[in-house]
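Question: I have long wanted to understand how a fold can be written as tokens. Here is the record:
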Amino acid sequence: MTVVSQSSKPNKPRVGITVHVAEVETKEGHPEWRFQMGARYAQVVAEAGGIPLLLPTHAAAAADPGAVLDSVDALLVSGGGSIPGQYFVANPDPSLRDTNPVRYDFEVELIRGAWVRGMPLLGICRGHQTIAEALQGGPALNLGVMAGARDHYQTEVPTQTTHEARFEDGTHLAGWLGSSGRVNSFHRQVIERVPPGWRVSAYSDDGFVEAMESEAGFGVGVQYHPEWLLESQPAYRQLFAEFVAAARS
């Protein structure tokens, strides 16, 4: 048997990816808490050279947030856990926490702990909104109660783009992607402002915050789903490559 020394192992950083949690009704008719996450998040991390580790977001089924962060080199706060449009009819202006308090509370602790440690942070869709609120930005506002706001939850497949985004000069996203580009869209809430120590790095074509990035270290939040755009827009590979590189260093 060949023993591989620790020093000869490849330097692959561990990227923690938060996993959506929801109470669902099983086919037998009883309620049960279940974890749900698209495999695409783990795929893009692995392709970028990281080791994806899935992080439950239910305090009763996970380690203490500090212990969780001790086990990873970077934190990806995922999207997913889509909310039916009828939810917003019955609850016309919910807070982001209202839509899933169990997941929200755990992710906020992870985000704040990661930020204090200087750990690389990447937030996608709901994850972008949660980072903003956790670090005293936000709040997430319901598009459905804004006069004249259009629907940002597309019915097309996620590889299909549906609107334009404008990337701000001098930001990392503009450096990787250029001044503008097409993005997909699966959200019913938008953030009002970015947290202290962060800046807006992209606006949607109707004027909402589409992306943000931290002024120090690696911190990026995007309102859309770039993990589905790698084939049509290969420049997005740079976003995940830089995230994993920051985790490695």
Notes: The chain is about 30% helix and 25% strand. The helical segments are 40-47, 65-70, 85-90, 96-99, 101-117, 126-134, 172-177, 236-248.
